[in-house]
Amino acid sequence: MVSSPTVWRRWLAHELTRLRKEAALERGEVAEKLRCSTQKVGHIETAFVPPKVRDLEEILLPLYGVTEDRRPYYVQAAKDARRKGWWESYESEALPEWFSLFVGLEQGASQIRTYEAQLIPGLLQTREYAKAVARRGTAERGQEQIEQHVEVRMSRQEALFRKDAPLRLWAVLDEAALLRVMGDREVMREQLVHLLTVTETPKVTIQVIPFEHGAHAGLMGRFQLLDFPWTGDPGIAYIEHRAGALYLEEPGEIEAHTVAFEHLCALALSPDDSATMIESIAKEYS
């Protein structure tokens, strides 16, 4: 079962939008019943804020014709959506608001497909590798902020090993991510050995695109595709930049990145051959 309040807000927003449309109601009509602005209804339906439990139970669910046996599920979702995620306890210097949103989505995702050109993905980084990346970043963090940043990254990785529905991760890496030295050679050796260890996890797949394979669909930069555990949720394409991130949800945007990822998988080495390549490069760092 999903434990992320961010993803519960997302599910509830999708469901309430669907129910309103099936009931042939406009946002303005719902706003009249709630005695609020149309904008507030829009905020609920875009997961900006969750609905109040009382409004959901006494007004929205009856208004939308939800049967009584289904109502407790929606009410519980609204309560879960209002909880605080573990990541929300960190200061903005360690976890900016735009990235806090991503962590919330990541922690509730059922699957993430990611392409990285220059770095090992955060969910697969060792502590020392993550420190080296944080020290060389453009955020100009102090030592305490670096430690908090790394701690968040290590905590995020628990999603891969949780007992209840562990996150499925499929990562495609450019060979450059294996060769770009972060920290020193020992840090890199440890990092690549860690990749080999993690690939033994049933729900983690890693593929590598060698330099010799030439041009490919990832030359425009890294991206991630997040899938969620409910039928009908189209997912999100996520692109990070220096000052924030883009959360792409239009069908055409998601399809474009899905097709790109499929091409990357087809061009990359197989998971077994990728592991052999990673092992070979790890030995060179010894």
UniProtKB/TrEMBL annotation:
<dbReference type="Pfam" id="PF13560">
    <property type="entry name" value="HTH_31"/>
</dbReference>
<dbReference type="InterPro" id="IPR043917">
    <property type="entry name" value="DUF5753"/>
</dbReference>
<dbReference type="InterPro" id="IPR001387">
    <property type="entry name" value="Cro/C1-type_HTH"/>
</dbReference>
<protein>
    <submittedName>
        <fullName>Helix-turn-helix domain-containing protein</fullName>
    </submittedName>
</protein>
<feature type="domain" description="DUF5753">
    <location>
        <begin position="100"/>
        <end position="279"/>
    </location>
</feature>
<dbReference type="Pfam" id="PF19054">
    <property type="entry name" value="DUF5753"/>
</dbReference>
